[in-house]
Amino acid sequence: MENSKQLEEVGCADTILLKKIADGDRNAFTELYKSYQPRLIKFCSRMLKNDVALAADMADEALIEVWKSAGSFSGLSLPSTWIHSIARYRMIGYLRKNKEILQDDDYEQLNLEDTDLLPDEEIMISERDQKIVEDIGKLSKKHKEVIELVYFRELSINEISKMLDISENTVKTRMFYARKHLKSLLESKGE
Predict the structure, then answer these.
(1) pLDDT of residue 104
(2) CA distances for 169 relative to 66, 74, 110, 148, 166, angstroms
(3) Burial of residue 118 (number of CB atoms within 10 Å: 0-12, 13-18, 19+)
(4) In terms of Cα–Cα distance, which of 73, 71, 43 is closest to 55?
(5) What's the average model confidence in pLDDT over 10-27?
(6) Contact at 8 Å (CB) between 84 and 40?
(7) Considering the chain, what is the average pLDDT of its residues?
(8) What is the CATH number of domain 117-191?
(9) Contact 132, 186 (CB under 8 A)
(10) CATH number of the domain at 1-116, out of 1.10.1740.10, 3.20.20.80, 2.40.50.140, 1.10.10.10?
């Protein structure tokens, strides 16, 4: 499907941008910033009880970290996964220092105590993520497309429905079967 091809092109384009950013290309960073900043604000605001101003600060901090560490992007995961991981760890660090923002049950839900990873653990997670990306590539085009739109582009069921011009129930059905097939692929590898 055309949208799957567009998603693959976005991943390749983001990888190229990261390489340019690693070489100090400010225009490449501006382009990446414009693409990711709104998504990161949305992601961060969920953990910050919809404090959009603070979420914008956290998103900017994460993107500054992307600028500084673009050269360390290994390509073992999608650029969007790597960038969202940076934002997530920034958020966790902030929330650890400012626990009063979260209610007790929210704090436990994030499982903040167990987030410090050793380098070997980070490599294992990165390799696991790469295997999952490879398994996603084995899904049918329709299922792959819906997984990528939900998990990598963080679109809602309604947004996907409009984008693909299909009903919301069709989106949900495709997600159900895509997850089921992905689970069976992972289980067959013992993961």
Answers:
(1) 46
(2) 37, 37, 30, 17, 8
(3) exposed
(4) 43
(5) 86
(6) yes
(7) 77
(8) 1.10.10.10
(9) yes
(10) 1.10.1740.10
